[in-house]
Amino acid sequence: MKNSIILLLLFQFSYLSSQDLDWSFETDTASTTTNATFTSEQDLWFSRSSESNNHLAKISSSGDLIWEKNVCNTCQGWLMISAELTNSNLIHLFNNGSIYETDSEGNNPTLIDELVSTTSNNINVRKALIGDNEILILGFEGNGSYHRITFDLETKNITSEAFSFDGNLWNFDINKENGSVAELYQKNDSYGILVSDVQGNLITNKILTTDENSYWSDVAYINEDDIIAVGYRNQNNSGRIGIISSIKSNGTTNWEKEYASEINDSNLVLATIDQLNEYILVGGGIGSKGYLASIKSSGSVIWETADYDQSFRTDFENLHLDSEGNIIAAGTSGISDVASQWRAIVVKYKNLPTSLTQVFEEELFWYPNPAKHMITLNASSELNHKSEIYNLSGILVYSSKKSNTISVSHLPKGIYIIVTEIDGTLYRNKLMVN
């Protein structure tokens, strides 16, 4: 293990420090993480699996265990996801397709339904997402048929669409703007992304790789038209390196780049953040340390960290953003390769960059540059900011508060320094006036 993460991109970026780690929660018995989801109060549902039981824990936003229950002694399979019903009860989906309901504290499990096909085959759940008042499910059965399933959290109705695919579908994401679906698949040594519209019509089949050294694990929309896939690539027996590919929904490649070296074989996972500036939150593991990085939609690194260390191995497998922009990372860690030494973990990082203004100076700019008449700031007009323009002699020639546009037509031709202050942070840019 090298002493630092290697980036193959020559961009300015910053590290998160251990001071950004707010709290960590670790189970006291051997188990692995299966999922984590926010409650309506911004606490966390945290599901984990041990050898014989499926546990659900409720953890407060400050990292304290509120309660933990074995949701169902007789349930088979792993607990995939838990969600709140309109009557405050909980619904629990297992990977074998069983759906159970409990009260708000995980008691009194009742079988609601079992996801089975028209041929009475059980549907194995591969991925589940919580949408607006519904759980969106991708499942498969042994004959090669796949199912897109919706479970309504208000009515408990289930709708299912079956289709055939010659390969393995690993993951998916739903475009919240137009309802299209991006599905990550593997066929022999090839990986690709199927994009379908809301009616299920195929838009594109984008091949990511056709070599036996590349493995892809997760896919997500970052806006209506751009899709991100993450994974890793074996480097000629010299370890693994993270890979991220960005494509348009029509299959056009935006970029593909390599990132952290020596990542664990659990691959990279991702979540997306869509605020003033779209950027991508990526997680995984590098040896004994959990890995997090924030990457702009253009592919450049904003910050990264690998400081949560459990001496043998740590993998962040679920990433979430709370209402204040803090990151919740859930995963699995171990102090040795013995199964009894593995624990499910939840970690909270605070005070992270959550907008364009908190990144670095080169990312905040005025345009056009050079300018003759008006310049505009590439940030939200709702930001509380002040701008000042100085000539090269250091004399203040213009000052403005909360204005995203500035007229420079009155300034003599030449080079100026424009200083923008946002929440106590100064950003300096060189400006040329023609």
Describe the protein in words.
The chain has no helices and 36 strands. Helices cover 0% and strands 56% of the residues. A hairpin with a 5-residue loop joins β27 and β28. With 434 residues, the protein is mainly β. It has strands spanning 14-15, 21-26, 32-38, 44-49, 54-59, 65-70, 79-84, 90-94, 98-102, 110-114, 124-131, 134-140, 145-152, 158-164, 168-174, 181-187, 190-196, 202-209, 214-221, 226-234, 240-248, 253-261, 269-274, 278-286, 289-296, 301-309, 313-321, 327-334, 342-349, 366-367, 374-377, 385-391, 396-401, 405-407, 414-422, 425-433. The strands form nine sheets. A five-stranded mixed sheet has the order 1-26-25-24-23, with no helix packed on it. A four-stranded antiparallel sheet has the order 2-29-28-27, with no helix packed on it.
The fold-level CATH name of the largest domain is Methylamine Dehydrogenase, Chain H
Question: What's the CATH C level of the largest domain?
Answer: Mainly Beta
Q: How many domains, as an integer?
A: 2
The percent range for strand residues is: over 45%
End-to-end Cα distance, whole Å, is: 52 Å
For the CA atoms, what is the radius of gyration?
24 Å
- Mean of all residue-level pLDDT scores: 80
β-strand number: 36
CATH architecture of the largest domain: 7 Propeller
What name goes with the CATH superfamily of the largest domain? YVTN repeat-like/Quinoprotein amine dehydrogenase
